[in-house]
Specification:
Layout (H helix, E strand, L loop, with lengths): L1 H8 L6 E4 L6 H9 L4 E6 L2 H10 L9 E5 L5 H7 L6 E5 L4 H5 L26 H7 L2 H12 L4 H14 L5 H11 L2 H4 L7 H12 L1 H15 L5 E6 L2 H16 L3 E3 L9 H6 L7 E7 L1
Parallel strand pairs: 1-2, 1-4, 2-3, 4-5
Antiparallel strand pairs: 5-7, 6-7
């Protein structure tokens, strides 16, 4: 939703923009190309994506128009203070990147045979998905799958995980997929969405504290944003979107922000056709009063 981001940020001359989820740097590069006198500060938590983004970046990192930092957006306040960078606009493009699925080797995809890691930043986090699967009580696993994955068969899956790990520790994605497949009914496996989708989502969220981080990050973003500045948040799953919606509603009610567009903006058909992963994207925009 690159075009929508550019449109709704309403960028003015000499603006300072924060790309709170840099990833490969697509948003940042496009903004620097389109607006010749703005400055962008990009934040990327995953150290491997950070290194790759720097090596592939089209703009010199030493350029005075761009700052790239390896940190989490939950630390937005200290980053803004450190670089004296009070923003006129902030972008959050939440969720997993293609890199995580295709290149990371950390078990984000149930389509690959990889270790059950799922950490975004192994330098700061110690708990992996395998740790949860092999050590957490069955009731806790069930709650994680139900709360973070909205998995209807969380009880069966958790019960079979506990049973399987007594025989052999569950280390690989393919081992977990087999357990999920024997835990759900046939009709569930014939649905459009793979039966492992919700379990993998739930574990990833639990490992990385994603929902807590989204709440912290969005609240801090509103605080550090200049008056008249805009915050654009793109989410890809309902739990994140709900958190963003509730924060925006509350802040609008108390007169801290106003809605730029009341409701959700979704990608155009052309983008979905070219990038099927974009189909679940939901964008919300507010302006600080």
């Amino acid at each position: 939703m690159l075009n929508e981001v550019i449109e709704y940020l309403n960028i003015q001359s000499k603006a300072k923009i924060i790309d709170a989820t840099l990833n490969g740097g697509g948003h940042t590069e496009k903004l620097l190309q389109k607006f010749q006198d703005i400055k962008v500060l990009g934040i990327e938590w995953d150290p491997e994506i950070f290194k790759e983004a720097i090596s592939n970046f089209q703009f010199p990192i030493s350029n005075s128009r761009v700052i790239i930092v390896n940190d989490s957006y939950v630390d937005l306040r200290s980053i803004v203070e450190k670089y004296d960078f009070q923003p006129d606009g902030i972008i959050f493009d939440l969720g997993l990147s293609s890199w995580h699925y295709e290149k990371s080797g950390r078990g984000f995809s149930f389509m690959k045979d990889e270790p059950l890691d799922m950490r975004f930043n192994s330098e700061e986090s110690t708990k992996t998905a395998a740790d949860i699967i092999n050590t957490a009580p069955g009731e806790e696993i069930e709650e994680i799958l139900r709360m973070y994955g909205e998995e209807a068969f969380s009880k069966n899956i958790a019960k079979n995980i506990v049973k399987a790990r007594k025989i052999k520790l569950i280390i690989k994605t393919t081992e977990l997929v087999k357990i999920i497949n024997i835990s759900v009914p046939g009709w569930y496996k014939r649905q459009k969405i793979n039966p492992a989708t919700k379990t993998f989502q739930a574990l990833r969220i639990a490992v990385n504290g994603e929902l807590e981080n989204v709440e912290k990050g969005v609240l801090v973003a509103i605080d550090v944003l200049k008056s008249g500045g805009r915050l654009v948040v793109i989410s890809f799953q309902g739990l994140e979107d709900k958190i963003v919606r509730e924060i925006f509603k509350q802040k609008a009610k108390t007169g801290v922000v106003s809605w730029v567009v009341k409701g959700t903006i979704k990608p155009e058909w052309e983008e979905v056709k070219n990038n099927p992963r974009a189909r679940s994207a939901k964008m919300k925009i507010i302006e600080k009063i």
